[in-house]
Write a structure and sequence with these properties.
The complex is a heterodimer. Chain A is mostly beta strands. Chain A is 0% helix and 56% strand. In chain A, the strands form two sheets. In chain A, strands 2, 4, 5, 9, 10 and 11 form a six-stranded mixed beta sheet that branches. Chain A has a five-stranded antiparallel beta sheet with strand order 1-3-8-7-6, with no helix packed on it. In chain A, β9 and β10 form a beta hairpin. Helix content of chain B is 0%, strand content 52%. Chain B has no helices and eleven strands. In chain B, the strands form two sheets. In chain B, strands 2, 4, 5, 6, 9, 10 and 11 form a seven-stranded mixed beta sheet that branches. Classes of the chains: A mainly beta, B mainly beta.
């Protein structure tokens, strides 16, 4: 079983739709979580950190459920420019080692 | 903000040769650098963790004699793919961090390696 798992998609959604991605992690020692966005053939870029209380950044909302060991990302009012692969990341306290999920591909359609 | 630069961004090499990829932190001293590999439509797989001045720690399944990592200074780490084969063709990406940047991870732009 992979340490961080995501549904690879693709998720094809129309512009303006709301879409949600989930990510599960198996290492209960994981402490910090992030969502990264990766465009085709480019390096990943930090989208947002994920906090236990949940956090929002504009159209993006991230949630963490430690009991069930999953994190989620909600994108509201999808834009064409949101089309990308979204990577879930978990790290363990005291290390800088990032463990990436397989990524979920999103295609926002006009 | 901090910048991590990789070079070359793309490289084509012949099977059996070696190729070196450089990762530089441009405006902070990176005590720790990481090397990842990403095959098409797959996730980034951590290959090794490199701490300045010490030997790299390789992840299970990564051949340390094939993927030579050097982190001789606080601003430069290199990955050398030795005796490259077509199956080594991949996107290689580094990241860097240090306590000075509060553990924030900065990624390089990545290097596309094609072995022919």
């Amino acid at each position: 079983r992979k340490e961080v798992e995501q549904d690879p998609g693709p998720f094809n959604v129309p512009e303006g739709a709301t879409v949600a991605f989930n990510c599960t992690y198996s290492n209960s020692a994981s402490q910090s979580f992030f969502w990264y966005r990766q465009d085709c053939r480019k390096e990943p870029k930090l989208l947002m950190s994920v906090y236990s209380s949940g956090n929002e950044d504009g159209r993006f909302t991230a949630q963490l459920n430690r009991a069930s060991q999953y994190i989620s990302l909600l994108i509201r009012d999808s834009k064409l420019s949101d089309s990308a692969t979204y990577l879930c990341v978990a790290t363990t306290s005291g290390t800088y080692k990032y463990i990436f999920g397989t990524g979920t591909r999103l295609k926002v359609l006009a | 903000g901090a910048v991590v630069s990789q070079h070359p961004s793309r490289v084509i090499c012949k099977s059996g040769t070696s190729v070196k990829i450089e990762c530089r932190s441009l405006d902070f001293q990176a005590t720790t650098m990481f090397w990842y590999r990403q095959f098409p439509k797959q996730s980034l797989m951590l290959m090794a963790t490199s701490n300045e001045g010490s030997k790299a720690t390789y992840e299970q399944g990564v051949e340390k004699d094939k993927f030579l990592i050097n982190h001789a200074s606080l601003t430069l780490s290199t990955l050398t793919v030795t005796s490259a084969h077509p199956e080594d063709s991949s996107f290689y990406i580094c990241s860097a961090t240090s306590p000075a940047v509060k553990g924030t991870i900065y990624f390089g732009e990545g290097s596309w390696l094609t072995v022919v």
